[in-house]
From TrEMBL:
SUPFAM superfamilies: Restriction endonuclease-like. It comes from Ilyobacter polytropus (strain ATCC 51220 / DSM 2926 / LMG 16218 / CuHBu1). Belongs to the UPF0102 family. InterPro entries: Restrct_endonuc-II-like, tRNA_endonuc-like_dom_sf, UPF0102_YraN-like. Pfam families: UPF0102 (PF02021). It comes from the Bacteria. This is UPF0102 protein Ilyop_1521. One of its GO terms (molecular function) is nucleic acid binding. Transmembrane segments: none annotated.
Length: 119
């Protein structure tokens, strides 16, 4: 199985989990010139940008380790493009990470802060 196929499987699992938690699906694989956001959901008037990572082992670090400052900046800039396109400039938003570390789902909320990446 190729990495993109694995990514699709784990993105689907993450989206199903979020729906079970009461989040409304907004968009999947939103792309801009800066990068891609795997899942965008909403709840209680908050838009949540979700990065999904899968790790078969921790040999190369956890899913959280894979979201370095460079990746965070790309996600942030892509999210700003989404906010601009959807005219959500006054909306609340946050950035979450759902990682599957050896099949265990780990949900980290608020993983990106603008001031921590230079914005």
């Amino acid at each position: 199985m190729h990495n993109r196929e694995k990514g699709d499987i784990y993105e689907a699992k993450a989206l199903e989990f979020l729906k079970e938690q009461g989040y409304a699906f907004l968009e999947k694989n939103f792309r801009s010139k800066y990068g891609e956001i795997d899942i965008i959901v909403g709840k209680d008037e908050v838009t949540i940008f979700v990065e999904v990572k899968y790790r078969k082992s921790n040999r190369f670090g956890s899913g959280m380790d894979a979201v370095d400052t460079r990746k965070q900046r790309r996600i942030y800039l892509t999210a700003m493009k989404y906010i601009q396109e959807k005219n959500l400039k006054d909306a609340e938003f946050r950035f979450d990470l759902i990682s599957f570390d050896r099949e265990e789902l780990i949900w980290n909320r608020n993983v990106i802060w603008g001031d921590s990446i230079g914005f």
